[in-house]
Amino acid sequence: MSKILVIHGPNLNLLGEREQDVYGKITLEEINRTLEKRAQAHGLQLEIIQSNHEGEIVDTIGQVKRHRFKAILINPAAYTHTSVAIRDAIAAVDIPAVEVHLSNIYAREDFRKTSLIAPVCRGQVTGFGPKSYVLGLEAILGLIEL
Ligand code: DQA
């Protein structure tokens, strides 16, 4: 069964209570449950992590080959706009990654309009709320051999 690594970046553990006008009321647990259901339907196995720590995310990405992951689904959250280290980690491991965002990062403050991560991903899904994750997973299905 193909293994996919799902990474939720900083503050996404606060979904449901955090800036509800921007991110809605859905919790990270609910998003993860939906993803798990979709993954099962497609015969994928997910490993899901949430971290508020850049180095921990870098370490996790660095181990994808050892753990035989086929692809990465990542919402880098605020690190999207700042992290050369996460960008370099994704570039280094050379397996397909898809970047997702709940909000449309291009319709918000100027500092969110740049993603340092997107250029090393196969694509980006942004602005569809929790559905962005589901669409991102669908995109991964087209990128990997099951
Ligand atoms: C986010 C967008 C980022 O700009 C922000 O820092 C987040 C969440 C999103 O999913 O819309 O934490 O990645």
Main beta-sheet strand count, sense and barrel state: 5 strands, parallel
Query: In the CATH hierarchy, what is the superfamily?
Result: Dehydroquinase, class II
The CATH topology label is: Rossmann fold
Number of strands: 5
Order of helices and strands: EHHEHEHEEH
Percent in strands: 15-25%
Which key phrases capture this entry?
5-stranded parallel β-sheet; 5 strands; 33% helix; Rossmann fold; 146 residues; alpha/beta; binds 1,3,4-trihydroxy-5-OXO-cyclohexanecarboxylic acid; globular
Strand and helix map with partners:
Blueprint: E1 2-8, H1 20-23, H2 28-41, E2 44-50, H3 54-62, E3 69-75, H4 84-93, E4 97-101, E5 123-126, H5 131-141
Parallel strand pairs: 1-2, 1-3, 3-4, 4-5
Helix pairs in contact: 3-4
1,3,4-trihydroxy-5-OXO-cyclohexanecarboxylic acid (DQA) binds next to loops.
3D structure, described in words:
The protein is an alpha/beta fold. It has a single domain, classed as Dehydroquinase, class II (Rossmann fold, 3-Layer(aba) Sandwich). Helices cover 33% and strands 21% of the residues. It has helices spanning 20-23, 28-41, 54-62, 84-93, 131-141; strands at 2-8, 44-50, 69-75, 97-101, 123-126. Strands 2-1-3-4-5 form a five-stranded parallel sheet, covered by helices on one side. The radius of gyration is 14 Å and the shape is globular. The mean pLDDT is 97. Bound molecules: 1,3,4-trihydroxy-5-OXO-cyclohexanecarboxylic acid.
